[in-house]
Amino acid sequence: MSFKSSKTGKHLLLTGLVVSLGLWATPATSQTTATDSQVTAFVEALRQAAPPQSNNDGMYSAWQVLPGIIPDWTKRCTGQQLTAAQFEADATAARNTVTCIARRELNNQMQARGNNQAAAVRGAACWWMTGKYDGCNSGFQAQYVQKVVNVYQQQVSGSSQR
């Protein structure tokens, strides 16, 4: 009898552990992530809002990415670590990398801002420029964020009309 109880107890314990892990790994239904069209619109907004490229500004690609973060971002997002020059020369890798990071940050902000799309875009745009989600309330930073928001809204409304 003791063996049967012990076996049943172990089975119940194992079942409980598996169920608990399954619930922990399953995303909560209240979490909202950005749709592909929202991410695409955000990536395009970041591109259009980027300062004009110049050969000596130290930034790379149409999205004006700092060279120091390119190796990490490309490794994380494409599986291949690229130099800034490789990133600049490979428009597909640049777009894929920017899309990957933009998706991550837009999702973070959608969740942090209670699925308020406008606030999420503002926060993610501020992060893109400064590395911080808040504080882009004046000067060039505010102008940049507003431009991202405006282009994003145009992109989203244009894609919904297609």
Automatic annotation (TrEMBL):
The lineage of its organism: Bacteria, Bacillati, Cyanobacteriota, Cyanophyceae, Oscillatoriophycideae. The keyword Signal applies. This is Lysozyme inhibitor LprI N-terminal domain-containing protein. Residues 1-25 form the signal peptide. Keywords: Signal.
